[in-house]
Write a structure and sequence with these properties.
The protein is α/β, with parallel strands linked by helices.
Length: 872
C-alpha cells in the first residue's frame, strides 16, 4: 500500500484557474530559470528492444527524438555495419542531415575479442560528423561521458530531452542505459523489453555548445551544419550501395501527430544551427487563452499494488484477530495493552473496546504487512472428477496461478486477407538493412502478420515453459477447435448452437473432459504446421468462439484467453450487426462476469484500420481484468509477448479497504460516503494496481487525532485461501505547500489517469478534463526534488495520449458531433489502458532498479530466438 504523499491533506477546499488549452507543462517549462553555464534537464531515454520488430513507441520516439545514441559491439563486425545503416535511417526519419547523434562502441572490456578497431569507429564517426566514444557497460568506463557528449550535441534548450538508444541485438543498449541511470550493471537482461527511463541531469558547457555555429560565437571543435551535410553525403555514397542513402519516400506515416514540416520551418526561421527535426520553439501566444475554474486537487490517494502478492515474507503462525464491531484486523498500528491474561484493544477505526484472551502482547503483529493462511490448498475440479488418473495425466496441469491454459482464438474471416502497408519506419529500415532502394514488397496481409506473431509467441513459450498447455481455436462463419493441434483434438462446433451461450459453454466443457491437451513440448511442431495452413474466409463468429473457449478452460485456475480479430462480430451470439442496434452487446458483459467468476482472463488484440465494435466487445476484457489493444498487425507479436510477461500471480482476489470514520472514498467508481470499500478483482497480474481517492467527510473540520490509520486486506485463493493485511498511519496537515512537498508523484499520477479515464468512459468529459488538468497543475508546480521531477516527466509523457483523447471527445461533445455509435476503437483502447494504468510506468530512474531485477532472462535460447528475428 502506497500513499499519494506522506501527509493527509485536511485543509479547506479551494478552487484554481487552469488554462482551457492543455499547455500547463509548457508554461511551467518556460518559467524555469537556468543558471550560468549549466543546464538542468530531464533525459527521457528510450531503451529500444530491437530493430527487426515494429514498435509504435520506437516509431514515435524516432520521429520526435532530440538525440540518438547508436551502439555497436566492438566484438561484432555485423553490429558495426548495422550502426551505419541505423544512422542513415535516423537522418531520413528526421528529415535532416544534421541530427544530434553519437556513435558508441560498447564492450571495450573485451579487448582480447575485438574485431572492430578504435580507429575504424573514430573514422566512421568523423565522416558522419558525429562524436565517437568507446564504453563498457560492465565496468562503467566512459558511459557517463558518452551520454554527456550526446546531450552537448543537442542544440535545443528544453526541460526534457528525448534520447533514443539504437543498435542491433546483444550490443548492450539496455546495459548502457541502466548503467547510466543507476550506476549498476545488469547481465542477462530480457532483450524483448522496451522501456523509458527518466533521469534528471545537470550538464556543464551546454549553453556554450548550443552557441557553436552562431556568427560571432566561434565554431571550433564542431562541424558546422553545411560541412556535416557535405561529409555525410560523401561518406554514405562511398559505401557502394551497401546501405542506401535514399529520400524518395514520404516523411511521416498517417499515425504521426507531430507538426507539419512547413509549420516547423516557419517557426525555425532566424534560429541558427537548428535541426529541421527538432520540435518548434514555444511561443507565448497561448497565454491569451481563457482559464477555467475547477476544484484544486490534493494528494489524498491510496494505491494498492498486486505485484508482490506471490511473495510472502511475513506469514503469521496464528489466525487474524478481528475487531468485534468493524472487522478490522489487529495490526502494528493498533493501540493495545495487556491486563493479566487479557489483551485490551481499542479499535483505531471504530473505537470499539475489544477484549481477547487468545492473543498476548508478544503475538501482536510487528510488521505493517502480514499474511495469514485461512485454508489448506483445494484440489482442482479436474483432479476431483478424474481421481488418481488425474494425478498421473495432469501432473503438469497448473494448480496455482500464472500457469493455466493459454487459448488463442484467431479470427480468419475474409477481411483478414486484406493487406496492410508496412509501417514507414520498418519499411525504411528494411531498405537500409537490405541495401535495396526499391519500395516493393512493403505490404503483408493481416493474417500473415498474425500468423508470424503466433509462431514467435509459441516459440518463446516452448523455450520458456515447455510444459505449458496451449489451445488453438479459429473462427469465421465456422468455429474450429484445434486444441493442441494433434489429429484427435480437432473439432468443428455445430452451427446450430452458435446462438446460445449455455450450449456453447457445455460444448467446451465436454471437449475438455474428452480430450487431454498435451504440453507444448509435445504439440509445438504440429501447432506451427496448423498455423501455417490457415487461410481467410467467411464472417466473424467471435462470440461462439469465446464461449467455447471459456467452457474448455473452466476449472483450470489462472487460464487466459487471447482474442485476435480485425472486424466487428457479425455471426452467432454477440453479433453487433448495426451501429444503432446492439443486440449482442449484453453478451460481452455476461461473458466478462462469467470469466471473472471463474478466474479466466480475456484479452483482445484488434487490428487497426477496421471498426471492431470494441466499445461493446471490450466489456469482457475490462470486467475479467484483461488487456485491450488496437495495433498495427506487425505489432501484435510484441503485444502477445507483453501479455504473457504480465502473468497472473493471484486469483479470486478481493480487496477490502478500511478508512478512518472521519474519511470517505471520493471516487465515482465506489459508493459515495463510504469508509469501507470491498472490491472484487478476480485474477490479478503483476501490473495490477488499484487506486482509491479519499477526502474528509466534513471538510475543514479540526481533527482531534494526530495520525489517521489505514488498512487494506487482500483475500485470495490460488489452491489455498490467504489473507494479507497492510496497516499504516499518516499525519495530517492543512498546509498545501507541505502536502505538495511530501507528494508521491507516481501514485498521484496513476490515480489521476485512472479516474480521468473512468470519467471519460462514462461520458463525463467535463469533469474528466478538469480532473486531469488540475492534477497536471499540482504535479507541475509541486515537483521539487529529483525523484518528483523524474516522475513528473514520466506522468506528463504517459498521460499525453489520454489528454489528447479526452480533449478531442470534449470538443466533439461541445460541437454535438460525438459519434452516434459512441467511442472509436482507438478511443476505447486508450480509455481502457489508462483505467488499468500501472504505477511502474511513472517511475523515474531512481525507482527503476526494483523492476530491473525482475527482468532477467537466463534462458539464452529465448534471447537467441529473439535476436534471430528477420522482419517480414
Amino acid at each position: 500500500m502506497e500513499f499519494g504523499g506522506d501527509l493527509i491533506y485536511v485543509g479547506k477546499t479551494e478552487e484554481d484557474e487552469i488554462p482551457e488549452e492543455d499547455d500547463i507543462e509548457e508554461q511551467i517549462e518556460e518559467s524555469s530559470p537556468q543558471n550560468g553555464d549549466e543546464e538542468t534537464c530531464c533525459l527521457d531515454i528510450l531503451d529500444t528492444a530491437g530493430q527487426e520488430e515494429y514498435s509504435s513507441l520506437r516509431d514515435a520516439y524516432m520521429r520526435s527524438g532530440d538525440g540518438f545514441f547508436i551502439v555497436y559491439s566492438i566484438v561484432s563486425r555485423a553490429s558495426f555495419d548495422e550502426a551505419v545503416a541505423i544512422f542513415s535511417l535516423v537522418q531520413n526519419l528526421a528529415n535532416s542531415e544534421n541530427s544530434a547523434a553519437i556513435l558508441c562502441g560498447n564492450k571495450c572490456d573485451l579487448e582480447d575479442q575485438r574485431v572492430v578497431t578504435y580507429e575504424e569507429g573514430q573514422q566512421v564517426a568523423d565522416k558522419l560528423g558525429i562524436p565517437f566514444c568507446e564504453t563498457s557497460a560492465k565496468t562503467g568506463t566512459r558511459v557517463k561521458e558518452a551520454f554527456e557528449k550526446l546531450v552537448l550535441e543537442i542544440p535545443t534548450h528544453k526541460s526534457t530531452q528525448k534520447i533514443v538508444m539504437l543498435g542491433s541485438g546483444a550490443v548492450g543498449k539496455s546495459a548502457l542505459t541502466i548503467r547510466y541511470v543507476s550506476d549498476q550493471f545488469v547481465d542477462n537482461y530480457d532483450p524483448t523489453i522496451e522501456d523509458s527511463y527518466r533521469k534528471m541531469i545537470t550538464v556543464k558547457g551546454k549553453k556554450r555548445a548550443a552557441g557553436k555555429g552562431i556568427p560571432g560565437a566561434g565554431n571550433s571543435g564542431s562541424l558546422n551544419s553545411s560541412r556535416r551535410q557535405s561529409r555525410v553525403r560523401s561518406f554514405m555514397s562511398s559505401l557502394s550501395g551497401i546501405f542506401t542513402w535514399g529520400r524518395s519516400w514520404r516523411r511521416r506515416s498517417t499515425t504521426t501527430d507531430d507538426l507539419p514540416v512547413q509549420q516547423q520551418q516557419q517557426q525555425q526561421r532566424g534560429i541558427p544551427n537548428r535541426r529541421a527535426s527538432a520540435p518548434p520553439r514555444r511561443t507565448h501566444a497561448k497565454n491569451c487563452n481563457k482559464n477555467i475554474k475547477c476544484k484544486k486537487t490534493d494528494t489524498n490517494v491510496i494505491l494498492v499494488s498486486m505485484k508482490d502478492l506471490d511473495q510472502m515474507d511475513n506469514v503469521a503462525t496464528g489466525d487474524p484477530v478481528y475487531c468485534d464491531k468493524c472487522q478490522v484486523v489487529l495490526s502494528c498500528v493498533s493501540d493495545t495493552k495487556q491486563d493479566g491474561d487479557k489483551l485490551l484493544w481499542k479499535c483505531e477505526f471504530c473505537g470499539h473496546e475489544n477484549v481477547s484472551t487468545e492473543v498476548r502482547e508478544e503475538e501482536i503483529p510487528k510488521a505493517d504487512t502480514i499474511d495469514y493462511a485461512l485454508s489448506a490448498p483445494e484440489p482442482q475440479k479436474e483432479q476431483v472428477a478424474m481421481g488418481a488418473e488425474a494425478e498421473k495425466t495432469e501432473a503438469t496441469k497448473p494448480g496455482t496461478t500464472g500457469s493455466g491454459y493459454v487459448v488463442y482464438c484467431l479470427d480468419i474471416s475474409g477481411s483478414m486477407g486484406g493487406t496492410t502497408q508496412l509501417p514507414e519506419l520498418q519499411a525504411e529500415w528494411k531498405r537500409q538493412r537490405d541495401g535495396n532502394l526499391a519500395s516493393g514488397g512493403d505490404q503483408v496481409t493481416r493474417l500473415q502478420a498474425i500468423q508470424e506473431a503466433l509462431r514467435r509467441q509459441i516459440e518463446r513459450l516452448h523455450l520458456e515453459n515447455p510444459e505449458r498447455r496451449v489451445i488453438f481455436i479459429t473462427f469465421e462463419s465456422a468455429v474450429e477447435v484445434y486444441g493442441d493441434c494433434t489429429s484427435d483434438t480437432i473439432q468443428e462446433v455445430p452451427s446450430n448452437i452458435h446462438e446460445e451461450f449455455d450450449p456453447l459453454l457445455s460444448y467446451g466443457e465436454k471437449y475438455s473432459r474428452e480430450h487431454h491437451i498435451k504440453p507444448l513440448s509435445e504439440s509445438y511442431d504440429k501447432m506451427r504446421t496448423i498455423i501455417d495452413m490457415l487461410s481467410p474466409k467467411g464472417c466473424t463468429s467471435l462470440g461462439p468462439a469465446l464461449s467455447v473457449a471459456m467452457g474448455i478452460v473452466n476449472g483450470s485456475v489462472g487460464s487466459e484467453i487471447v482474442l485476435c480479430t480485425d472486424g466487428a462480430p457479425n455471426g452467432g451470439i454477440g453479433s453487433l450487426s448495426s451501429c444503432e442496434v446492439r443486440p449482442g452487446s449484453h453478451f460481452y458483459i455476461k461473458a466478462g462476469e462469467y470469466a471473472k467468476e471463474k478466474n479466466i482472463t480475456i484479452s483482445i488484440l484488434a487490428v487497426e484500420g477496421a471498426r471492431t465494435g470494441l466499445e461493446m466487445v471490450s466489456k469482457c476484457a475490462e470486467i475479467s481484468g484483461g488487456t485491450i489493444n488496437v495495433l498495427n498487425p506487425l505489432e501484435i507479436s510484441r503485444q502477445l509477448r507483453l501479455i504473457s510477461q504480465n502473468y497472473i500471480i493471484a486469483t479470486y482476489v478481493t480487496i477490502t479497504l478500511f478508512l478512518h470514520p472521519e474519511l470517505e472514498v471520493d471516487d465515482p467508481r465506489f459508493p459515495k460516503g463510504s469508509s469501507k470499500i470491498v472490491k472484487e478483482i478476480g485474477s490479478a497480474t503483476k501490473d495490477t494496481d488499484m487506486t482509491f481517492v479519499y477526502k474528509l467527510k466534513n471538510p475543514g473540520k479540526k481533527l482531534d487525532i494526530e495520525k489517521i490509520p489505514f488498512q487494506v486486506s487482500y483475500t485470495l485463493k490460488d489452491g489455498r485461501k490467504m489473507l494479507r493485511t497492510i496497516s499504516k498511519s499518516l499525519s495530517t496537515t492543512d498546509c498545501r505547500e507541505a502536502m505538495e512537498e511530501a507528494m508521491n508523484v507516481s501514485v498521484v499520477g496513476t490515480a489521476a489517469v485512472q479516474k480521468t479515464a473512468y470519467l471519460a468512459s462514462k461520458g463525463d468529459l467535463e469533469n474528466a478534463r478538469s480532473h486531469l488538468l488540475s492534477n497536471k497543475l499540482m504535479i507541475s508546480k509541486g515537483s521539487r526534488n529529483l525523484k518528483q521531477k523524474e516522475e513528473k516527466v514520466a506522468f506528463m509523457e504517459e498521460s499525453k495520449t489520454l489528454s489528447n483523447v479526452v480533449n478531442k471527445l470534449h470538443k466533439e461533445r461541445k460541437g454535438s458531433s460525438l459519434r452516434a455509435c459512441g467511442f472509436s476503437d482507438l478511443d476505447t483502447t486508450v480509455l481502457h489502458q489508462n483505467q488499468a494504468q500501472s504505477s511502474s510506468k511513472l517511475y523515474g530512474a531512481s525507482r527503476k532498479m526494483e523492476l530491473m531485477k525482475k527482468r532477467m532472462e537466463t534462458n539464452q535460447a529465448v534471447s537467441a530466438a529473439y535476436y534471430g528475428i528477420q522482419q517480414m
